[in-house]
Amino acid sequence: VFRVGEALEYGIIGINTGIISTEVAPFGGVKASGLGREGSKYGIEDYLEIKYMCIGL
């Protein structure tokens, strides 16, 4: 089930459930659709840059 869910290129996937949309679920386009994610904590990730910092103490 997890392998299939990861392989599907869709913004939202429901497996063994009929109601998949909630107020905390991210939604939006995938690939080159020009739309990013909205809602949930994943919407802010479009505006963030990840930085790795290694500090020797």
Question: Could you characterize the architecture of this molecule?
Answer:
By secondary structure, this protein is low in regular secondary structure. The mean pLDDT is 65. A hairpin with an 8-residue loop joins strand 1 and strand 2. It contains 1 helix and 2 strands, in the order αββ. The protein is 11% helix and 7% strand. The longest helix has 6 residues, at 2-7.
Summarize it.
Keywords: Oxidoreductase. The chain is mostly loops and about 55 residues long.
Strand content: 5-15%
- Give the tally of structural domains: 1
* Gap from first CA to last CA: 44 Å
Strand neighbour order, sheet with most strands: 1-2
Q: N-to-C SSE series?
A: HEE
* Class inferred from helices and paired strands: little secondary structure
Number of helices: 1
Instruction: Enumerate the spans where pLDDT stays under 50 for 5 or more consecutive residues.
Output: none
Instruction: Give the averaged pLDDT, no decimals.
Output: 65
Shape call = elongated
Number of strands: 2
